[in-house]
Amino acid sequence: MTASIAATAGSAGAGWAAWNFLNGQARAARAVIPHRTDNAPNGDGIYRPDGTGPIRVTPRVSADIHMMVFGDSTAAGLGAESADETPGVALTRMVVRETGRSVRLSTKAIVGATSRGLSGQVDAMLIAGKPPDVAVILIGANDITAVNAPSPAAKRVGSAVRRLVEVGAKVIVGTCPDLGVVTAIPQPLRSVLRQWGFRLAAAQTHEVRAAGGRPVPLADLLSPVFLASPDRMFSSDNYHPSAAGYQLAAETLLPEVLASLGEWGTGPLPDPPEVSEFAENNRLVVRVRRRLGIPVRLRRRRADATVGSDRSTGRSMA
């Protein structure tokens, strides 16, 4: 009994020490990463195939497609120097170019938002007028830094997707990004946040699909490039993406946006992994086994029957 109590006390002491250490690192990270109080550039309006835009929306000026962007500072484009550099405008111009149709962009994203704020953003959309043809949601990083539990946070995203689908919108969700690429965050906190983010992204993927949306695994698809070129992919605050980072995010989201609108064509859609290869290679057990020279078997992707029909009729992106 005495030994058991001593072991428990030792474990509790170690846990408390680790908690204090990570809290200290979190404070250090907040000192390195500036607290942004500014807003992202606003590029809302109508964009036309002739290159004009944004054009102010009036009762006499309409568009063929209405796209709305929901989420946090990344969705809004904080870190971009101009409206054209934000992910919403970049994605809108790509859709215009690929479809030859005019597109109206409306940004509902709020700097600093977590999944708790999505409901309010959807409420504001429903009060303002007609729902969009396509909705893009980028959310998750603030849930991680706010230490919101992954499962409830993902369920809140699923609820927002379901509400949008019920009013006729096609919904694409860029799942939680990888905070492990932000080198301003010290170790081991960075690794803890990375794993927390992977858990949230996986939970978001499940909830988004169940609600009728289309998840896009941004952590897996963007992290290698951000790690290889941080000076180019991050803005001056070393936390939010730069124009190049947002351009890459928009390019990554584009195939699912076009497919949701029936504009992809005849080639297959890119098939992102259900089990992230990047996440798998960064699991602690995998890294330790490789360092020790022990063979590693990564988990395989399972066939995704829920979106198979959509992926069979797509456009080949040149």
From TrEMBL:
Return the InterPro entries for the record: Ester_Hydrolysis_Enzymes, SGNH_hydro, SGNH_hydro_sf
Which residues, by range, are in coiled-coil regions?
Answer: none
**Taxonomic classification:** Bacteria, Bacillati, Actinomycetota, Actinomycetes, Mycobacteriales
Instruction: Spell out the protein name for this chain.
Output: Lysophospholipase L1
Domain SGNH hydrolase-type esterase as annotated: residue spans: 69-248
